[in-house]
Amino acid sequence: MRIYMDHAATTPLRHEVLEAMLPYLTQVYGNASSFHAEGQAARHALDGARATVAGLLGCKPGEILFTSGGSEANTTALVGIAWAYRHRGRHLVVSRVEHPSVLETARFLAQQGFRVTELPVDETGRVAPEALAQVLDDETLLVSIQMANNEVGTLQPVAELARLAHAAGAFFHTDAVQAAGQLPVDVRALGCDLLTLSAHKFGGPKGAGVLYVRQGVELARLIHGGGQERSRRAGTENVAGVVGLARALELAVQERAQVASRLEVLRDRLIAGVLEAVPGARLTGHPSQRLPGLASFVFEGGIDGESLLMRLDLEGVAASSGSACTSGSLEPSPVLLACGLPVELARSGLRLSLGTATTEAEVARVLEILPRTVAQLRKVHGASLA
Amino acid sequence: MGARVLAAMSGGVDSSVAAALLLEQGYEVIGVTMQLWPKDLPIHHDGGCCSLSAVEDARRVARILGIPYYVLNFQDLFTREVIDPFTREYLRGRTPNPCIWCNDRVKFGALLEKARELDAQYVATGHYAQVAYDPQRGRYLLKKAVDGAKDQTYALYGLTQVQLAHVLFPLGGYTKEEVRAMARERGLPVASKGESQDICFIPDRDLKGFLERRAPGAARPGPIVNRKGERLGTHQGAIRYTVGQRKGLGIAAGEPLYVLEVDAARNRLVVGTREELYGHALEVEALNWVAVPGLEGPVEAQAKIRYRAPEAPVLIEPLTADRARVRFREPQRAITPGQAIVFYQEDRVLGGGVIARPLPASHETPPVPATSEV
């Protein structure tokens, strides 16, 4: 039996979600922008999904922009704001531990003449609000800081950061991709102007995402060629994907509190077990301000994260070193480096991310396999820790 | 289940059949593709054993075979152990064999290390070569492939005894045609990849451009001279040339002229006639002995001074543990410093090394090596 501990990379599609989607993959095939009855049936489903999502996030349907996923939503937020408001200023602020779709987009904009500040984080991965306050100026257009980190699970003080950004006249965007389903996501409570979600991180389908855009905030378009999504994103609507996203978010919000407290118990058992059974293991990220379902570690003694992941996979455990986009490469994790870890440790990262289907037995089994695997790897290197 | 093997896969016919044969022999096979090129090199989508399409193709083959498959990143190592030394050798006026380093240091170096980390006893590749154990001498032997035309032992002479003990070459006993037939029978791809004679990290074959990017300004104009030191013309960078080259000299002469020597230190190109290109002896360095622990005295063997050169009879006279003088019975064309020379006795690789320099024909008074040796 395989043990799947990589829910931060993606989650299995829930059967309720599949059921909700199926009619729109089969009978209801119309183009939601078409004039006729077939098109209107699809449009009806799309509008319903938009209203559902808006209700769950605490905003208006017109503030919901559907995208192909988290990366597109993040890119749209940064590029869209930068281009729409470039006459007003040219400064953008992100943190060093953002997902690559934020960080690389910011760096792309830096090549286009925007000024980008990458805020440092402390050893737990947190951005200090004072550090943000210091870099904000009249030119600052946008601050983009994630709700929760995808590699080490650290939560950011988003509401406070948003207040600071607004006080300086800047917009605030948060990437809530990892947070949805585990933390409350209410755009008014968070005080953000833009927020990103991705359906497949909470039991929905791949290929569907949301960018919340507060009413009145302008966005330059990334994709041209049609009037869809209130002329903010051209392209035939992914009706089935969006219906699935809405259903998955509905379930995730309904079950969130219960799921989160269950995951916390499993996560803490996993963390305590690893720290106890694996010599030289260190927890990464924040000890308490972290995602309920995410445990992350580094291992002293020259452990190569790539070899560790391969061995775990061969033992039946699906894990990750961090972002799925960067694992499979020996490069040290930029997130771990930003947390101040030396290169050798930053190559040894392991992320175990739990989901609604994770069981106590699976956690117990990983606690058998992982210490043995790390010990075997250390034996190969002849680097045994006392 | 049998011993665990890491099979290096490119998605081509050879490595795919190699993995399939191991599986049929009862090994537990894990497929891997190594990502080698650094991001700042141009990517090409087909061809080489580690090109972009290699990953997609190899993954598909692993699926067909039903084996675990991983892509491993060796970009930094490949740059450090292959690309950088390649550049340095050219800057010294030598013509290196980067495929040999890739075998010694990457495929059977770092990948073998990775195998150990994964409890795999062996690394397997689709090379055409054979490994055998000689119980009398207690040594692992490297032997030519059954398919002489495909034999790749020239590029494998640098393997140590420890490495040879942990490599598997499942194709060594087959001809290429048999391998293709086995691929067809098993529904595997039949197209060849990799081990071409081109350099995989210079996909456009533009060595000049590559060196200019890696070592800007290193190629500067300088004199072209003959053996007597008479100036015949001007070159655009001595390091861009290789011994034996005829084209691109830009000299109008009565008879064809060839590069005899690339004198990088003085940025000089020495040229001469076809006859002058032939040499009788050379000095070899960085020797690795395979069939024997070392030489006690002079030994006769066959030698190849290039991947595709025919074998020629030689007398090897050891100078130090890893240096020797090699005399050819017949003069050889374009003895090129930096290229490997590999020694054979029948179908066995005796050993090999790197050509340090050609030596004058007179073998009574060989010049003293420039470096001081014990």
Which strand-content bin applies to the residues of chain B?
25-35%
Give the CATH topology of the domain at 3-9 and 256-381 in chain A: Aspartate Aminotransferase, domain 1
Quick one: overall form of chain A?
Answer: globular
> What string, H for helix and E for strand, traces the elements of chain B in order?
EHEHEHHEEEHEHHEEEEEEEEEE
CATH homolog superfamily of the largest domain in chain B: HUPs
The major sheet of chain B is characterized as:
6 strands, antiparallel, barrel
User: How far apart, in Å, are the first and last alpha carbons of chain A?
Assistant: 33 Å
Compute the average pLDDT of chain A: 95
CATH architectural type of the largest domain in chain B: 3-Layer(aba) Sandwich
Relative strand content of chain A: 5-15%
Radius of gyration of chain A: 21 Å
> Helical residue percent of chain B?
10-25%
pLDDT under 50 segments of chain B (min length 5)?
364-374
Considering residues with a beta carbon less than 8 A from a beta carbon on another chain, report the largest interface and each chain's count: A-B, 15 and 15 residues
Number of helices of chain B: 7
Reading side by side through the largest sheet of chain B, how are the strands ordered?
Answer: 12-15-14-13-16-17
